[in-house]
Prior knowledge:
419 residues; three-stranded mixed β-sheet
Amino acid sequence: MRERCGFSGGEPGPPTPQPRSARVLSRPMDPVYVSELNRDVRPAAPGEFAPVSIGPILADPPVVLAPMAGITNAPFRRLCRGFGAGLYVSEMITARALVERNEKTMRLAEFDPDESPRSLQLYGVDPHYVGEAVKLLVGEDRVDHIDMNFGCPVRKVTRRGGGAAIPAKPRLLESIVRAAVSNAGAIPVTIKFRMGIEDDWLTFLDAGRIAEAEGCRAVALHARTAAQLYDGEADWAAIGELKQAVTSIPVFGNGDIWEAWDALRMMRATGCDGVVVGRGCLGRPWLFRDLAAVFAGKQPEDPPTFGEVADTMRRHAALLCGWIGERYGMRDFRKHATWYTKGFPGSTKMRDKLIRIDSLAELDAILEEGDRSLRFPPTAMRVKRGKKGGRQKVVLPEGFRDDLDDATPPAAEEAGDGG
């Protein structure tokens, strides 16, 4: 029996603001909120995009929340699930720390009692620790899906030969993936990776073929190189190439899904089976509501007013406080507060206050200063959030290119940002 990705009820804490569609007759999105890129994109036709099977899990619609360090924790996943169905993956967990039962790592690897499916992203550089971590997760019935990260471009990770550098050594990648799959039993394993190190050193086709050969149930490509970080435009053509090369398992595309229409445009242009949404949902968890609409053949609604955004902010902050306490929860929420308020008139002064909040009461007082009737600013629809732009020179270990068939694991496992 397949497990369908969807919303689980029974949430503690303040009630989720009732969607506009439940209060008044739903109306199509005002054209002012549709970018020039997407003016001619139409909702999915009946049967155009099938749900995606990842082992026993059915992703319907075929939408995945990208694992993002410090962001896709249990409260954020719960918030997003309330807006629409999808596969919501945890932030990255390091294999060795999990095996050693590091207290913080074990907490990050926890799921809400009603969260289903339980999808966890695992990062490891050593097949031994990856295998042991998967044994732990499966043997203790902690997960329903394991995603593996081979896309992190952060310098402190690649300089040790980890993250996005691993696919450049195909035998090492192969041994890590094999260790995960062989210990996962019936639990599906997927992997996510980038195009390669830089424009003249691409690894994504080999990575996809290795995943397919070793028994992964799906692959996801962030269509940028490690050198690009999060800069420029994602190269969707590479997603199409990967789909042509990997034929027996689903291929998901990642990169520049800012509007729900982008997802349909990507899938139609590349033939990929589904999409992975990252920075586009930061401060905009209702993007998953829009995605559910367009995949169902409907027009999305207008984005929320400031009052509705404020209600969602309060909900998000309360969930974080319930998870790690008010002091740390509010500090963690500060970055989210800046994303939620991007583009609203007068929001610069508001953000100056929001980045200093320490309590829910402070948050309430600041939000009450805003005009609840303000419409969402159209200019904010494609404002980039999260990681800053700019390229980098990828730093690799000395002698890294001397023997790319070397399967020796890097000396240390350094956590990154998920890629």
